[in-house]
Amino acid sequence: MPIGPDNAPPPAAPGRAQTVLPPDVRALFDGANIAHVATLMRDGAPHSVPTWIGVEGERVAFLSSPTSVKARNLRRDPRVSISVTDAARPTTMAQVRGRVGEILDGDPAWAIIDRIAHKYIGAPYPMRVDRVLFLVDADRAWAQAFG
User: Which of 87, 106, 133, 142 has its CA 20 to 30 A from that of 36?
Assistant: First the structure.
């Protein structure tokens, strides 16, 4: 399910290149850690929700209902910030800021959604309807340990 007014992702800003995810960031996003996805409401206010997270290539992936506030926000404005904390070391975190570059539905989305679900519950995602997958192109990615 593409985004943007003409069913295509919004164009990248001139000179904007996707950031390669550093190994420490990738490790936290690949782990079974809960992330928080922040989007922008129509009035500019932040909206943040916890979610399962994964990595596909150099993109961060997360799922949602296509009618959720998060999904509606991202279709209108693809900018997103995602933070994750290591479940075993809560003072270790990573953040990715970027833009949703693609929204998948159908079989391609379910293949990735099921991979993400296996990390968290050891099985395919239990609800087989009402889910899409968001793929985020990172503009900035970093990790840090506090103590």
Answer: 106
Q: What is the pTM of this model?
A: 0.87
| Choices 1.20.1070.10, 3.40.1390.10, 3.90.180.10, 2.30.110.10: CATH for 23-145 | 2.30.110.10
Coil, strand or helix at 55: strand
Q: What is the DSSP letter of 6?
A: T
Contact partners, residue 28, CB within 8 Å, separation at least 6: 84, 85, 86, 92, 93, 94, 143
Which tens digit of pLDDT belongs to each residue from 90-139? Answer: 999 999 999 999 999 999 999 999 999 999 999 999 998 899 999 999 99
CA 11, CA 1: separation in Å to the nearest integer? 16
Query: Which tokens in the block code for residue 7?
Result: 């069913």
Cβ atoms < 10 Å from Cβ of 107: 7
